[in-house]
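Schema walk-through. Below, the input block comes first and the output block second. Nothing else is stored per chain. Lengths vary across the set, and this one has 313 residues.
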Amino acid sequence: MPSADSDKKIAMKDKLPPLNAIRAFEAVARHLSITVAADELNVTPGAVSRQIRSLEEFMEQPLFIRGHRQITLTPAGKQYFNAVARIIEELRSATRKLKRPPKRRQIKVRAYTTFAMQWLIPRLASFHQEHPKIEVLLTASLDPVDFHNEDLDAAIRLGSGDWPNCNCYVLSDNVLAPVCSPALLDSEPGLHAPADVAEYSMLHSLARPDDWTHWLEATGVIGQVDARAGMSYQSSSMAYAAAVGGQGIAMAQLFLVEKELREGTLVRPFAQSVDMGAYTYYLLTPKHRAESEDMTTFRLWLLEQARLTRNAS
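--- output ---
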């Protein structure tokens, strides 16, 4: 028969950690600050510190590294925080649904201004037509995404697909090429070779300052053309609009100007392009919390739209 001591050890293994301490741990780990966590929880920093010590004693190992005026998670603390954050978010979500059923089914998505205006918004009407009960709240920002501290369901970001703690789904090819108004092709001195862009106003996006450099290097004329010369705009969509208006030559991500190229308001003066490979647009969703049914619906729709765009190019 098992002894009383062995029964006690089994009971201790199955025992839940102190829940108030878990709440304090999650807040401190999220902010990496005992003071900020204390303000959020409406208790004193000393009370938060005691809760953390209580949890570490229960876990029989340190969860934080205390430095001079800073606090960081130990490897064990990071692992535990990922699990705790996911569970707390699920608990919050379940509580919200039970206390106040949402009047609207809303998905919160962040994108870049140009991506939203040139690609996503023109397609959103079809999503709303297929799913009239799901509202997509779309915002635009260049800021990095922090799913732990922001109320977001998804984000569309440009990068190499290596965002930590995110599910990453490729949305597009990222092929760069110059575009301009067809009227510019008939102007003097003419666009006969890549180096000829130096004779025209090169249009830049402040959000993408290196695009011209990538293309000029790929075509071998970087030494003949000043990659920074020309006019700059806050976003690529503004540079594209300036190109449509005949103000110069913009360096475009081709999938974002497919409509203008198809309608002829923009043309490609040169066949040369540069493929940025894995550095492209991705849909990001948080790994630390479960995906809602509505978000799954939106994600599958978005990936299908992206597939259709790639196949059409």
